[in-house]
Amino acid sequence: MPPPRSPQPVPGPARPAAVTETGLLGTPVKIQPHGCDSGALLGRLGVLVQALLATVAFSTLMLKRFQEPKEERRPWRIWFYDTSKQAIGALFIHFANVFLSGHTAEDPCSLYLMNFILDATLGMLLIWFGVKVVSWLVEHRKYTCLAFGEYGDPPQAAAWIGQCILYLLIMVFEKTVVSFALFIPGWTKLQEILLDYIPDPQLELVLVMFIVPFTVNVLLCPDLDFDQSESDQDISGLQGTSQKATQPGYQGVL
């Protein structure tokens, strides 16, 4: 009789293997079996986190408005015009980052975080430069209705619409330059190790879409303003503008 064969070990569940795909820079990228899924930013948790962040941002703006001295507090219409410009720019940057992060073979959470970091550093300088250039052109051409923060007396919705368009064009310029900056060699390697130490994809999502933006925009630089123009009118990028007087700044969330 043949000798009995020893029992074979029962194989456990196979771990998903890493997949090599073409990354954002056109180079092969090894996708590890952890990190956010491709649709995580617009999934149920992602939408909930974004809604929570928007609520916190709006509540912060309201709180700062009521903290302003009454004699310096802007009328509600001027406050709405200023904050709506800020919100339009912030929403454009945010959804541009979500779109760019969701259309890549790489981890969308780490790519979103990279976009946010660039927007909060290089992007702020680009916005400051864009506001300065546009303000100089408006003053040179004497388009008073397009001067940031000047809406006429009484305030005109047409002036607000024109300023929103100019501000949105500045945001498009900023996002375009930042997107090209991601093609600099080395970003792919940084993206691979940026959030490698976080094993839970949901924790990674909350970190990059709530904790980091909240910390940067609300806690670290809540009153960051760009330099004033020669007419002492407050000209700010992500912070909003004032009407005929310098007002305390307020922070927009990207």
The helix content, as a percent range, equals 40-55%
What's the helix-strand series?
EEHHHHHHH
Q: Kindly name the structural category.
A: mainly alpha
The tally of beta strands, per DSSP, is: 2
Would you identify the regions where 5 or more consecutive residues have pLDDT less than 50? 9-27, 29-33, 225-254
Strand composition percent: under 5%
Shape designation? globular
First-to-last CA distance: 76 Å
Instruction: Report the average pLDDT across residues.
Output: 75
Put the structure in a nutshell.
The protein has seven helices and two strands; from the N terminus they run ββααααααα. With 254 residues, the protein is mainly alpha-helical.
Topology:
Layout: E1 19-22, E2 28-31, H1 44-67, H2 76-102, H3 108-120, H4 122-141, H5 157-181, H6 187-194, H7 201-220
Antiparallel strand pairs: 1-2
